[in-house]
Every structure is written in structure tokens, then in C-alpha cells.
Specification:
Elements lengths: L12 H4 L12 E2 L10 E4 L6 E5 L8 E5 L7 E5 L5 H5 L9 H17 L4 E4 L5 H8 L14
Parallel strand pairs: 5-6
Antiparallel strand pairs: 1-2, 2-3, 3-4, 4-5
Amino acid sequence: MEQPRSAMNGYLRRHIDLPGVRYRRIGFTPTDDPSLAPFTSAHDVLGDGSLVLLPVPGHTPGSLAPLVRRPSIAPLLLVGDLTYDAGLLEAGQIPGVGDKAGLRAASALVRRLKERFPDLVILPAHDPGAAERLRRANRAPDGTVHGEIDL
């Protein structure tokens, strides 16, 4: 049974308790990988650095951002609800929902990562400009299109 106000807090059990789906809790481990700095902990999903989960608490407990590193084209960082607009994140503004201190800290880490890797493409879940940034990010320097999708 859902708790009172769970919908207002963004937790709807029927959205996550799905038939046949099994979840496994992941743990973030310390990392000294310079390509992930300023993040000091991460979870390498595939073991090869191509898909790394980074902790971005603030919007909800346990929030994470998948970092997708692809050969020859821009890396992607899916930040979920850490922000609702990449421009707001760059400007240092945080969304209205969540733990303000956690949102500020996680946003600062993402901005520092972007400073270190200017080609990093930040994709917030609700950002109307994310689809176009993804489309542009899928073009290699030689013009080759990777992962073309219809959005």
C-alpha cells in the first residue's frame, strides 16, 4: 500500500513493482579514475568503462546518472531529474523538487565534469532540447551518424 502523499513525493509503487522484473541494488565503489573526476565513486556496469553509473543524489534518494562513453563520438550523461533543463544546470540553478543541498552538490559535480570534458552531452529527462542534443551528439567528426533514432 502506498503511503499518504506518495504521489506528491514521486513514489508510486505501481510504477516500479512490475511483473517479472527483478531489481538488484548496486553499490558505488571508490574510484580514482581521472576520467570520472570530480566524482570519487562510481559503478562500472559492464566492466569496461563504457557504461558507468555516477551518484547524483538530491532529487530522490539513490538518484544516479548513467555516463555512456562511446568510441569516436561524444559521451552522454543522462542526469534524469537532477535538472529539468541543461541550460539551468549550466547556470547553477536547481529544480524545485528534492533535497536542495544534495541537488547543489550533485549539480556542481556534473558542471565540473562538463568543464573537464566539453564534448560531454548532458541529457536531462524532461529537457525539450535533449532530443536535438542527442541527435547532434550521434554524429562523428567525419559526419558519420551513429545510433540514429526517430524522436
